Amino acid sequence: MALISNEGxxxxxxxxxxxxxxxxxxxxxxxNSNMRRARLELIAGKNRLATIKGWMIAAQIIKNGRTNKExxxxxxxxxxxxxxxxxxxxSTWWAFHxxxxxSEVSEPYSSFFLxxxxxxxxxxxxxxLIDEIQKSLKQDNGExxxxxxxxxxxxxxxxxxxxDRPLEDxxxxxxxxxxxxxxxxxxxxxxxxxxxxxxxxxxxxxxxxPTVDFSELTKSGLGHFLCCSQVELREHLKRMKQSQKWFxxxxxxxxxxxxSVSFNELCTPDKTVLLLLQEGGDTWx
Length: 285
Prior knowledge:
The protein has 285 residues and is mainly alpha-helical. The chain has 13 helices and eight strands. The strands form three sheets. The protein has a three-stranded antiparallel β-sheet with strand order 3-5-4. Strands 6-8-7 form a three-stranded antiparallel β-sheet. The chain has a two-stranded antiparallel sheet with strand order 1-2. β1 and β2 (71-73) form a beta hairpin. The protein starts with 12 loop residues before the first helix and ends in a 6-residue tail after the last helix. It has three domains: 2-88, Arc Repressor Mutant, subunit A, CATH 1.10.10; 109-184, no CATH class; 191-279, Arc Repressor Mutant, subunit A.
């Protein structure tokens, strides 16, 4: 859990941008020997450096380099650097969101979305949400996380969607006054977002499976991560199937009430993230 050390804090757009710029030329900026310089460069204390690094690892923007002291930009991190260095595009933050949803070390971010209702989008009490997530996550020793730890972690995720944080204006999450009630939002979905989500799902869940039942995609959380219902997602895919543009990415088959999705050659994250960053339309609310 890369977010375990963030002490309940979200991350800012400026921190992500600045860290990408630095790591591009200095892989050891997060090493203990460079902590003083990192604090000056990122205008952050020791604990906030852990926050920045944790969110970037969770979002698959950086990974360990040749040694444990080094971090380097992933292909996704390089794609951001080369296509939206100022991190101004909504498509960049959609890619950021989906990268965390499918990351292996980003809990409780993905559970945060999976535990919210994507059909009626009813309000959920934050304490109830924390309890549900706590039941589904275990430490390496098999024990549950402490109440205070889980509340802090879930709080850091929720804070990413309020108070001018990077993900607020995508419309992924809605919070009531006082942030005691939470529900999935109704964001603007472009075809490029959906294609990249499919590619991420394929790479992280079905790498060796060329065809997947639609029901399996929904059980794996695709609709939750896109904040749409199963019916809405099916309609999107059926519509996109009719476009020649998406033929090389996927096919949607409807036979005997058992719909399925076939992944085609171009449906890989390295290709679809560039498509999203370069051609994705503006979805800021």
